[in-house]
Amino acid sequence: xxxxxxxxxxxxxxxxxxxxxxxxxxxxxxxxxxxxxxxxxxxxxxxxxxxxxxxxxxxxxxxxxxxxxxxxxxxxxxxxxxxxxxxxxxxxxxxxxxxxxxxxxxxxxxxxxxxxxxxxxxxxxxxxxxxxxxxxxxxxxxxxxxxxxxxxxxxxxxxxxxxxxxxxxxxxxxxxxxxxxxxxxxxxxxxxxxxxxxxxxxxxxxxxxxxxxxxxxxxxxxxxxxxxxxxxxxxxxxxxxxxxxxxxxxxxxxxxxxxxxxxxxxxxxxxxxxxxxxxxxxxxxxxxxxxxxxxxxxxxxxxxxxxxxxxxxxxxxxxxxxxxxxxxxxxxxxxxxxxxxxxxxxxxxxxxxxxxxxxxxxxxxxxxxxxxxxxxxxxxxxxxxxxxxxxx
Length: 392
Fold this sequence. Notes:
Elements: H1 7-21, H2 36-48, H3 71-84, H4 87-101, H5 110-115, H6 120-129, H7 135-171, H8 184-190, E1 195-196, E2 201-202, H9 211-216, E3 219-226, H10 232-246, E4 251-258, E5 262-264, H11 272-277, H12 287-296, E6 304-309, H13 318-330, E7 334-341, H14 351-359, E8 364-367, H15 372-381
Parallel strand pairs: 3-4, 3-6, 6-7, 7-8
Antiparallel strand pairs: 1-2, 4-5
């Protein structure tokens, strides 16, 4: 026999429904009135999801939007949502406020930036606005961007360096190492077939090592990033990864961004914040021109990995783009196409171009920041990429 629901559980259920449905003093048919903190929380939801988008407007019993264009009111609202909701929910509500109520212009005010919960999406918005920022706002904006970048570096840098160092070590493995450079674990595994049970030992016919060779090996990596507006989150993550790769002595990393023109930001890779403020989100796309520039910078094709990060909506010469990819692959370049480098889920992309690249042996797929180190490790070792099942 099922135990009856407790009065407390029923009340909590009605409370949640009342917060979802909104409404006025009639409790929106739930019979559950709100007071105290719940009433204040409801007002913050009403201000954003109230339907009309203007302060003081009501449509029937639906929620009313109450943020309007008032900077002080928005600042108070930003403080309220941080009081009542966890950071992950705050970030969603901030994005909704920018999208639904057109609050982008308010982010040009320092007091606004100081009130928001910083995340990758906010950075993307700031980058799209930074050319229009007054001088009084720019330093605050840089501080917000730096906070997000440093958080990403803390989360991603250690694992990236460890994964890629292992890949570079394996790619540099040699079979005639000096005694002090022998990798005994790999040597034993490689010679298990030579085990002599009567002597309880393995005869090492083949020695495996990497030691000094690993420190001498160098691979070339070119990150080619589409800076069109739809790629904002990918640009942020790619800039952080670019700085991490540039910090590794065994990699020679170049970072190229493009729309209809091409900019080489390699000399700014020591600080990903400088990279991000050197990017202009928006504009058209000319992938062919960007790949032509990258191709001109390749000096050791067999030791080069080119990573194109783009949704592939090409505004340039399609056939030229595909010919360049084919030529780079034929010369020995490891070519990787990422439709997105973010946690945002399945991206929109040009499926015809993605299919054409896949036919050239360069499958295009969306990649999360957590997967990126594995993708790069596979490319450096020239082994199959860990392509998700949803790849084009």
